[in-house]
Specification:
Serine Threonine Protein Phosphatase 5, Tetratricopeptide repeat
């Protein structure tokens, strides 16, 4: 019975019948001896993989934790083998990925740190193997991701830089392969991200351009696959983000438009999935923003409206995650921006208020991160802007004051970055303007003087 269920699970997954594959795997796992580690690992991997695909993160996390327990048991000897340590390190990274997806950043950081420690302790005889080097670069990327998400850009840069050195070493030592090239491209893109975060757009452009060249090379050399196409679309979006940050709106629009075409192609060729739908919605949002930058509000509205439908569909179909909720809030804010630019203050207010409610919910449910706090300040400022536009200066001051408090808190908690300083300046200038409207000249002047001081720190 157990053997038949295992084979049925394999066959169902090969036939892309995820429901049957999961059902057979779960039934087989319940019958399987606890001593049969290899088959238990296979079944748990399938359950986790399929759960992640359908965004069932509770099931995925349970399976990933069981896999960590299996791998940990294999390292319980006095001198665990290098293979056992590698397997535990990989299992911890997979567990950390799920924890990060559901917003448990501290637990994810713990998992990634343990994985990194295991890999660094592997005897030097084995450290130079392709598998260990790859695990090391991937884990360093994850450590950098958590550092970046929690506002420690120096730690993020250090982790990404080391990951990049390891990824280049793999290619230099063992030659090209799709996996090695992909790892290098992804790490370069992350190096570009942290450079962009710190305002170094030249370094960001250099890293993202090399990442893009590699992503194209993978497709040209090894042919189309969903992963290779997705990597190219994501890298194009990063190239667009860097161009837009540097003020090159046309280059941004060109990159975003190509990325959008690729995400549509992935859906048309390989069908719906939470990841493919999200990628399409993100690309639509970026195209909408770039077309809005060029003054084409109708085209921007069309893109945002399609993105908004996709975000709601993802949430309704697959449930809440921090990323899905944030994606919806971002697009709502952009819908509000277009409505406000078109003179429809009521529609703008409705979109901004829904976005604000989502961002409070993200903070309440998943806890504080620099991104979540910054998102909240953006939404508060948007709500304040519509209140000001409609003549309600008191409501505007309430929103702006809360946004200012959060901007100060971000600086106090996570330190100075160009983005944090710019956000504080923006909040101070808004507060100054509304205080002036309310006749509070002294308060307005104090806010303006502080904004001027903060702006000088940026230069």
């Amino acid at each position: 019975m157990t053997t038949a269920l295992i084979w049925a699970s394999r066959a169902a997954e090969a036939a892309q019948d995820d429901g049957a594959a999961t059902d057979h795997a779960e039934r087989a796992l319940a019958l399987l001896s606890t001593e049969d580690h290899a088959l238990r690992q296979e079944l748990l991997e399938r359950i986790a993989r399929l759960a992640e695909r359908r965004q069932d993160m509770r099931t995925a996390l349970s399976a990933r934790r069981a896999l960590v327990a299996l791998a940990r048991a294999a390292t319980s000897g006095v001198r665990p083998s290098s293979d056992a340590s590698e397997q535990l390190a990989a299992a911890l990274v997979n567990e950390g990925d799920v924890l990060r997806e559901i917003g448990e950043l501290d637990a994810a950081a713990t998992a990634f740190a343990e994985s990194l420690g295991l890999l660094r302790r592997i005897p030097s005889t084995y450290k130079g193997t392709p598998a260990v080097l790859r695990y090391l670069s991937v884990t360093l990327d994850r450590v950098g991701d958590i550092a970046r998400a929690t506002g420690d850009l120096n730690a993020a840069r250090a982790a990404y830089t080391e990951a990049l050195e390891v990824a280049r070493r793999v290619l230099d030592t063992y030659g090209d392969s799709p996996t090695a090239l992909r790892d290098l491209s992804i790490t370069l893109a992350r190096v570009g991200d942290v450079a962009r975060d710190t305002g170094d757009f030249n370094a960001a452009r250099t890293a993202c351009t090399e990442a893009l060249d590699i992503a194209r090379r993978v497709l040209d050399t090894y042919g189309d696959s969903p992963t290779a196409l997705r990597d190219l679309s994501i890298t194009l979006n990063r190239v667009g983000d860097t161009a837009r940050g540097a003020g090159d709106v046309n280059a941004a629009k060109t990159a975003y438009t190509e990325a959008l075409a690729i995400t549509r192609r992935i859906l048309d060729t390989y069908g719906d999935s939470p990841t493919a739908l999200r990628d399409l919605s993100v690309s639509l949002g970026k195209v909408g923003r770039a077309t809005g930058d060029t003054g084409n509000l109708n085209a921007a509205k069309t893109a945002y409206t399609e993105a908004l439908r996709l975000h709601r569909r993802i949430l309704e179909t697959y449930g809440d995650t921090p990323a899905a909720l944030r994606d919806l809030s971002v697009t709502l804010n952009r819908v509000g921006d277009i409505a406000r630019a078109s003179g429809d203050v009521d529609a703008a207010r409705a979109a901004y208020i829904e976005a604000l409610e989502l961002r409070r919910r993200i903070l309440d449910t998943y806890g504080e991160t620099p991104t979540a706090l910054r998102d909240l300040t953006t939404s508060l400022n948007n709500v304040g802007d519509t209140a000001r536009d409609s003549g309600d200066a008191d409501a505007a001051r309430t929103a702006y004051t809360e946004a200012l408090q959060i901007a100060r808190r971000i600086l106090d908690t996570y330190g100075e970055t160009p983005t944090a300083l710019r956000d504080l300046t923006t909040s101070l200038e808004r507060c100054a303007e509304v205080e002036e409207r309310l006749g509070n000249e002294a308060a307005a002047q104090t806010a303006r003087e502080e904004a001027r001081t903060v702006r000088e720190r940026l230069n």
